[in-house]
Design a protein that fits this description.
The complex is a heterodimer. By secondary structure, chain A is an all-alpha fold. Chain A is built from 10 helices and no strands. Chain A has helices at about 10-15, 20-30, 35-50, 60-80, 90-95, 100-105, 110-120, 125-135, 140-145, 150-175. In chain A, helix 2 (about 20-30) crosses helix 3. Chain A is elongated and about 60 Å long.
Chain lengths: ~180, ~240
Amino acid sequence: MSPVRPSPKIQLFEQIMLPHLDAAYNLARWLTRNPQDAQDVVQESYLRALRFFDSFLGGDGRAWLLAIVRNTCRTLHQRERGALEVPFDETVHHAGEAVNAEAGLERDAAYAGLRNCLQALPVEYREVLVMREMEEMAYKEISYAAGLPVGTVMSRLSRARRRLLDCVAGRKKGAAQ
Amino acid sequence: MNCESARNLEDAFLDDELDASARAQFEEHLAECGACAEEHGRLGELRTGIRNGALYYRAPAQLRDRISAHLRQVEPGGGAWRRVAIAAAILLAVSLAWNAAQLRSRETQLADSVLASHIRSLMGTHLMDVASTDQHTVKPWFNGKLDFSPDVKDFAADGFPLIGGRLDYLNGRAAAALVYRRRQHIINLFTWPEAANPAGADVSRNGYQAIHWSQGGMEYWAVSDVSAGDLRQFEDLYRR
């Protein structure tokens, strides 16, 4: 294939959307809980985003892109129904993925606990927490990206945090015994 | 503010989503309520824990390149789309040429079979099924033998006397052949109802001429070894 000079549209698209690649990948990674699925989701999301780019009205492209990532994850989820529905099994998630390989060195065991607890949260809680805590998005942005009323965003965040605190506390207790 | 309403506002406070007055009231309560302050502290720790970079998955380095390459391939006007467009244009041109060739060959095929039919009629004894110089004899003879009634005309006064008629089979259907004489030459006039897309091109081969026209929903092929001028004159007479 001969190198093709990108059109002005694609240059603009990349200029606006590629800076959010990490955000897209992080969300996809947390929603799919699998690095390969996350890459596939992100790639598919960017293709969709380009297709719908005319409907992007400007501003911060992150919430717009993350809405697409979220929907793409749900499509994948429906396609492989059950694959992500499997209830969290601590032994599996403990042994399963090489946590350190992807995120770099993880010295503090407390983060491992937190990671496992976050992974174990239902996806409805996981998505709002990732957007709020890792992307530091405002309720309004999360509301847009997740397609939820602002009130629901707040109540889900609240419940997600309580469950997370309980999970971490439980693990600490378990480790101490 | 009591503890219950404080608990309801805790997350909004943490997330900086409270308006100034609610925030002030919440801070006031936090300063005087140990339990709520403790809860707030735990949420703050949780936040610090999550926001620690260790939980953030950065995109693998090759993903950006892969996406960039992919976007260029699918983008309209670029990469794959451009190649698809070029391929489509080539395909269209080929298909047009092929169709033209098909049409062309259909035309010449028909002319060939008309010429062959004419020559066959001269070779044996089967020039005419009905031999008559009377158009009022020839025309009724076709009744019941064809699903159309050919327009039988006599041009004896103009040097093209009708001498008879014959059934023939052309272009995949039964056709009428009207036989005329021009001096010592025979003219076969083949006719059948016009097809949906009549095709015809005059041909001249081995001393024979075939000319084609459509008129009144019928197709006509006049074939003879007379001169092209004579055949045109015959056509003019018939079309008149």
